[in-house]
Automatic annotation (TrEMBL):
It comes from the Bacteria. Gene3D superfamilies: 3.40.190.290, Winged helix-like DNA-binding domain superfamily/Winged helix DNA-binding domain. Residues 5-62 form the HTH lysR-type domain. Keywords: DNA-binding, Transcription, Transcription regulation. Pfam families: HTH_1, LysR_substrate. InterPro entries: LysR_HTH_N, LysR_subst-bd, WH-like_DNA-bd_sf, WH_DNA-bd_sf. Belongs to the LysR transcriptional regulatory family. This is LysR family transcriptional regulator. PROSITE patterns: HTH_LYSR.
């Protein structure tokens, strides 16, 4: 059954139950006395019963009105509370986020945690994939927004720079370490272990290589940065990975950076969302938070 009562009618009913003067209630809510009277009359017609008695120029709840009050007061207050939540008095809810694999493991969880520290009612649901997979999640509406580690030029995607990154050429084979920088040509024939096609990390690396990429010995392709790192302890294996993803391994001597003369593999991380996505207060507040987050400066 379709409900014919309106929230406005119920609000006026509650107001009159506490202050039985139509004129005064009208002034408080910005309505004329006749408009308030018509709203109450319409409510009584919907319910097919009188809710008020008119006594000495006042309106007083009758037995039907008192019973109706017990049924609707908590409902109206609950609706007002829900309205206040969505009007920014409090930020509550779940944000669904698609995240490229590398930054999903090493950066974005820190962003979530920092935001949740000051917004207790917020949670995040994260789906991971490569840059193209995350963009696909955005385009299909499966997530509210995304963070990617490469450029994406979809017509329906809005983007802005989240922060800067640099890719390092790394290996776990200590015999490849030397003082002087390599020329890129010296490394092309090594056993390169790369992320899969569609990965922002791989696309950035190949873009910087240009024509040299045609001579690269791609020995293995793996879907996750962790899987790539697990192979690099083998002889003659090398890769190109985000500096954020190899910080710990470099610190403890599990991987080694191989400087390359004339190359700086820089890129940007991006925040993305669908151009037709409704920007709720929660989502807008979170995106604004990411603009000011300084975790990428570490």
């Amino acid at each position: 059954m379709q409900m014919r009562m309106t929230l406005r009618q119920l609000e006026l009913f509650l107001a009159l139950s506490k202050k039985p003067h139509i004129g005064e209630v009208g002034k408080e809510v910005g309505l004329t006395q006749s408009a308030v009277s018509m709203a109450i009359k319409s409510l009584e017609e919907i319910l097919e019963t009188r809710l008020f008695d008119r006594i000495n120029k006042k309106i007083v709840l009758n037995e039907n009105g008192r019973h109706f009050l017990t049924r609707v007061e908590h409902l109206v207050l609950g609706l007002k509370e829900a309205e206040s939540i969505f009007r920014d008095e409090h930020l509550h809810g779940e944000i669904r986020v698609g995240v490229s694999s590398s930054i999903a493991n090493y950066i974005i969880p820190k962003v979530f945690y920092s935001f949740m520290q000051s917004h207790d009612g917020v949670s995040f649901k994260m789906e991971t994939g490569n840059t193209h997979e995350v963009a696909s999640l955005i385009e299909s509406g499966r997530v509210d927004m995304g963070f990617i580690e490469g450029e994406y030029d979809g017509l329906d995607i809005e983007n802005e720079v989240l922060g800067k990154d640099e890719l390092y050429i790394v290996t776990g084979d200590a015999s490849l370490v030397r003082k002087e920088p390599y020329r890129m040509e010296e490394l092309l024939g090594r056993r390169w272990v790369l992320r899969e096609k569609g990965s922002g990390t791989r696309e950035t690396f190949m873009s910087h290589l240009g024509d040299l990429g045609k001579s690269l010995n791609i020995y293995m392709e793996l879907d996750h940065t962790g899987a790539v790192k697990s192979i690099l302890s083998n002889k003659d294996t090398v890769s190109c990975l985000s500096r954020y993803s190899v910080q710990k391994e470099l610190k403890y001597g599990l991987l080694f950076r191989l400087p390359v003369e004339g190359y700086s593999f820089t890129r940007s991380f991006y925040t993305i969302w669908h151009k037709n996505k409704f920007m709720s207060s929660l989502l807008s507040t979170f995106i604004e938070f990411t603009r000011d987050w300084d975790g990428l400066s570490e």
